[in-house]
Amino acid sequence: MAASETVEIAVVGAGVVGLATALRLAAEGREVLLIDPNEPGSGASFGNAGTIAEYACMPVGNPAVLRALPKLLLDADSPFALRWPALFQLAPWLVSFVRQSLPEATRANALALAGLLAEALPAWEEMVKEADMADLLRRNGCLYLYRGESDFAKAAGGRALRAGFGVNQEVLTPQQVVALEPHLREIEARGLYFPDSMNVTDPKTLMQRLLGAATARGASVRQAKITGLQVEAGGVQLSGPGFRIKAGTVVIAAGAWSLELATKAGDRIPLEAERGYHLEFPTDAPLLDRPVCPVDLGFYMTPMAGRLRVAGTVELGGLAAPANPRRLALLDRGVRQFFPQLGRPSSEWLGFRPSLPDSRPVIGPSRGSLRVIHAFGHGHLGLTLAPITARLVADLVGGRGDPARLASFAADRFSALAFSRHIAGLPSRRP
Ligand SMILES: Cc1cc2nc3c(=O)[nH]c(=O)nc-3n(C[C@H](O)[C@H](O)[C@H](O)COP(=O)(O)OP(=O)(O)OC[C@H]3O[C@@H](n4cnc5c(N)ncnc54)[C@H](O)[C@@H]3O)c2cc1C
Fold this sequence. Notes:
By secondary structure, this protein is α/β, with parallel strands linked by helices. It has a single domain, classed as FAD/NAD(P)-binding domain, CATH 3.50.50. The chain contains 14 helices and 20 strands. It has helices at residues 16-27, 44-47, 63-74, 87-100, 103-117, 120-130, 149-154, 156-164, 174-180, 203-216, 259-265, 325-336, 382-397, 416-423, and strands at residues 3-12, 32-35, 51-52, 80-82, 137-138, 142-146, 170-172, 190-194, 198-200, 220-222, 228-232, 235-240, 243-252, 272-282, 292-294, 299-304, 307-316, 347-355, 362-365, 372-376. Strands 1, 2, 10, 11, 12, 13, 19 and 20 form an eight-stranded mixed beta sheet that branches. Helix 1 runs parallel beside helix 10, helix 1 runs parallel beside helix 13 and helix 6 (120-130) crosses helix 13. Flavin-adenine dinucleotide binds at residues 12-18, 35-38, 42-45, 48-51, 53, 225-226, 253-257, 276-278, 311-312, 351, 353-354, 376, 378-384.
């Protein structure tokens, strides 16, 4: 007979989203149990590019990507590649991604993202104070580089879209780029500067700080994998090998691994993993003052404590396959176009972005029960959106705020009816 315990709120998954949510709920005096089979913060939240990208309201699927998609997917060395053995499994997601890349859907997705991103920085400021992590953030903005006039021209739609949502962005001449980043003097590139964005200097330490702040406020941690989820009268039964936990409310925050649990809760959600990679190079002195993204290469070069992290690119292809050395070589060749003097990388990493075809996360109650709250699917923006997600989840638990606000992030938005209403600009089912 499995040992059983009860808890007010179980948060499944201790990535940045689960950690931020556990902290928020514990700070409000809730009894919280955080559950993860792995070291907290060791998933996608460990290896990302470290940008708090409040400007990034352009969805991954958009008309420019759609036009380039055949070329991108057929070139194994493009920044947006496909593992062909996974094509069958990926087909439904890809079809939905194509639909979501049409102009009207892109606009709706950008609007939804922009609404969340507008609250991302204030939510971060609050969390930084709560977890005492100001020393782990730099407030130097972020820089996109365009090395060809045609790339700059093609990005006009993105600039207009961001301008429409009030994002602070400045177009820079090649001279202004070099004035900001002197080590890029050999590179002739136009820049697009986002002065308000911040970056994390060490994601691993930041995750540890979040965990420390959550446990200091009373959250408990259990190293375990949840394999069963069943809604019952008065609560939700979670289970795994040799244990059972009855929770009043369950928050599913298991990143790219959330699908199975969400399905058990009664939802059909097109969640896929966008595989991304990083390499790190030790540096005696920082080579850059802020994250720099050469847009054509699809990665960020982010200065972190004692090292340069080169992180990004997309490889569609599921959770099971091992790291693809060709993708790591692509990052290595790319960064050497800027810094040929770099030695061998000191670490390499593969991680999994939890991604929906419309680039929006799932935040809000399950269709199956109000006692199951989803908080996953943040794609390229999980670090940026973790604190605002935590706030929204805490508001739901506390019965505060307007639940209609979460309609754009509802679990059922991909059902046929919800999809047609969404395209028609009507709100989908109220969560
Ligand atoms: C290369 C790359 C660069 C990126 N750059 C940025 C960036 O600059 N800015 C940004 O905002 N975002 C960025 N992202 C995206 C961001 O890292 C993710 O969106 C974010 O980390 C997702 O956080 P999460 O907590 O949802 O998932 P994760 O951090 O993956 O955590 C999920 C956790 O759930 C646990 N888990 C899984 N299954 C179970 C189970 N059955 N029971 C219990 N626990 C379970 C896992 O062990 C894991 O610890 C990047 C991602 C990649 C890959």
